[in-house]
Amino acid sequence: MPHLLAADLAATGSPGVRWMARNACWYLLARGDTRTAHDLAATCASTGAPGSGMTMRTRGSCRLPGLGAPGHGRYAEARDLDQDTLARFRRVLGEDHPDTLASADNLAADLRALGEADGP
Length: 120
Fold this sequence. Notes:
- With about 120 residues, this protein is mostly helical.
- It is about 70% helix and about 0% strand.
- The chain is built from 6 helices and no strands.
- Helix 4 (about 55-70) packs antiparallel against helix 5.
- About 30% of the residues are buried.
């Protein structure tokens, strides 16, 4: 983990290294290290942001930053990230895609935590 965290993920062209970093985010979240998971996830999302085509890997990268933010009380940040992700998924994948629905669920949890469950 220390080597992965020290790596310059933005400079790597290796999909394998980015894949490993995304898996490390899930591991860190499971361990309860939400701050490190969030920081690493933000790096993953910025290096794998979707362009014209959204692959499984880029979809996973989009969701990660929002998942780590609530763990250290950053619910408004999580809401903003998850709103952006949901909008992208709706546009690219459609309303009924499983990733779109999972993203909507993440946003609903953010809104609930902020007391905005009746919001948009």
